[in-house]
UniProtKB/TrEMBL annotation, chains A, B:
Enzyme class at the top of the EC tree: ligase
Reaction catalysed by this enzyme: N(2)-formyl-N(1)-(5-phospho-beta-D-ribosyl)glycinamide + L-glutamine + ATP + H2O = 2-formamido-N(1)-(5-O-phospho-beta-D-ribosyl)acetamidine + L-glutamate + ADP + phosphate + H(+)
Organism placement in taxonomy: Bacteria, Thermotogati, Deinococcota, Deinococci, Deinococcales
Protein's name according to its UniProt entry: Phosphoribosylformylglycinamidine synthase subunit PurS
UniProt keywords, alphabetically: ATP-binding, Cytoplasm, Ligase, Nucleotide-binding, Purine biosynthesis
SUPFAM superfamilies: PurS-like (SSF82697)
Pfam families for the chain: PurS (PF02700)
């Protein structure tokens, strides 16, 4: 059964305040990085799924929408790629 | 002065335990997603920097290494791309 590596990116929607990002931005500005703006802190989740591609894609879409993100406040996108087999010597 | 959009991905090193990821994994297994494994939860940070490309690259490398990640426990990588100008009508 093939194995897939998934990468999930969860970001706050642009209209939602991001206090963590603001704090990072302020800290950076005190560290002489005043040219940095628009800091937004989101989540990056890696996971591995086994199964056939079509099923895994549907399953991942469900997981991202219903478990890993809150669609009211967050946007999420994901990438899926088949894990490479260990090549023979 | 050009503006650049940066994306930063911070992940725990593979040898570091990830309780948050384990919790997500257990929750998924209770939700009939038993084929999911290796869940690791990291950070995804977006920021905008203005300046010349060479300076911005050096600055971002410094920020990622010293502010946004803890090199003892975390790996970090980043992508930088120039923000597109708003095209004239």
């Amino acid at each position: 059964m093939p194995t897939f590596n998934a990468k999930v990116f969860v970001t706050l929607k642009p209209s939602i305040l991001d206090p963590q990002g603001r704090t990072v931005e302020r800290a950076l500005s005190h560290l002489d990085h005043a040219n940095v703006a628009g800091v937004r802190v989101g989540k990056y989740i890696e996971l591995t799924l086994s199964g056939e591609r079509a099923e895994v894609e549907a399953q991942l879409a469900d997981i991202v929408e219903n478990v890993l993100s809150n669609p009211v406040m967050e946007n999420a996108r994901w990438e899926l790629e088949e894990a490479r087999e260990v090549a023979g010597a």
